[in-house]
Amino acid sequence: MRAVEITSFGPPDVLRLGERPMPVAGAGELLIRVAASGINRPDVLQRKGHYAPPPGASDLPGLEVAGVIESGDAAAMAQAGLRVGDRVCALVGGGGYAQWCVAPVEQCLPVPAGLTDVEAAALPETFFTVWSNVFDRGRLQPGETLLVQGGSSGIGVTAIQLARAWGATVIVTAGSDDKCAACLALGAHHAINYQTQDFVAEVQRITDGKGVDVVLDMVSGSYVAREVQCLAEDGRLVIIALQGGTQGEFNAGLVLRRRLTITGSTLRPRPVVFKGAIARALRAQVWPWLASGAVRPVIYTTFMAQDAAKAHALMESSQHIGKIVLTW
Fold it and tell me: Phi/psi at 200 (nearest 5 deg)?
């Protein structure tokens, strides 16, 4: 099969289309004939040598795919209500940049009605991540307020829509007026241009000094101190990426007085049973929103698999709004 390989650690052009043996599905797994593969920032980190695949995962990049079930564990598929020939999307630990990919049955979901393979490939990584961190770990409730850092990213556009559908008020930050406008069009109630505005002051203004209940942070570093200032009493800060670095100081007195929670997580190394629980929650709560059109994947552009380097260059430019997808 054809697959996009990381020939060495480095810039985007280290990605090359090569030949690999076909993977074989084992117990509890199925084999997908891939039509489209989502691009995510962890793929960029892996390409640079900063994010090794978990033990047992493919060394090929790619954490989400969509396509058709080719074969697999018949009993596990039957239990999940899946069968050969079904269109599915899947969260995988690696190996998504390939014409065929093995996935745990528990991490596969049927393609929502009306969605293309490209749209379906844009779902798993961001939807699993947002559900796990905003709703499970962050405990966002209807009527509460969520602050999303980087609202125009793949994670951001997903968080906006899911939180809005959940009944929360959504505030986002973004790096340009155009990106802020796009976030508002997707359902954000307020958008802050962090290049020209102080997001702490704006959050205090928007919330009449109360602060927000949950912050979804993809920056960390120096942002943590400012986000602590943004939180309401009993607020929760959830860190899911470290684009601003691993070190940061914050006012611990505010954490004590306001009873704040600072937490974080990574999804890729978690066990199948954990990801399977997220998949079931998504199928029950979010898949109906996708089928009805209340929530939709936001595709910025697609690239053919042989142009994966161009896709990564675009990802690193941060000029996109929404998801970038490879097609096969």
Answer: -65, -50
- With beta carbons less than 8 A apart as the criterion, state whether 308 and 38 touch: no
Interhelix angle for 199-206 vs 223-230, to 10°?
A: 10
pLDDT value at residue 23: 97
pLDDT value of residue 246: 85
Kindly report the average pLDDT of the chain as a whole number.
Answer: 97
Question: Please, are residues 190 and 171 in contact by the beta-carbon 8 Å criterion?
Answer: yes
Contact 188, 172 (CB under 8 A): yes
For residue 98, give the DSSP letter: B
Structure tokens at 80: 């999940």
Q: 102-113 as b/e, with b when 16 or more CB fall inside 10 Å?
A: bbbbbbbbebbe
Instruction: For residue 127, give the DSSP letter.
Output: H
Nearest to 102 by CA among 57, 61, 40: 57
Q: Tell me, letter by letter, the H, E, C secondary structure of 270-281.
A: CCHHHHHHHHHH
Give the pLDDT confidence score for residue 244 in this predicted structure.
83
pLDDT in tens, 282-321: 999 999 999 999 999 999 999 999 999 999 999 999 999 9
SS3 state of residue 51: coil
Scored b (16 or more CB within 10 A) or e, 246-255 reads eebebeeeeb
Cβ atoms of 25 and 102 within 8 Å: the answer is yes
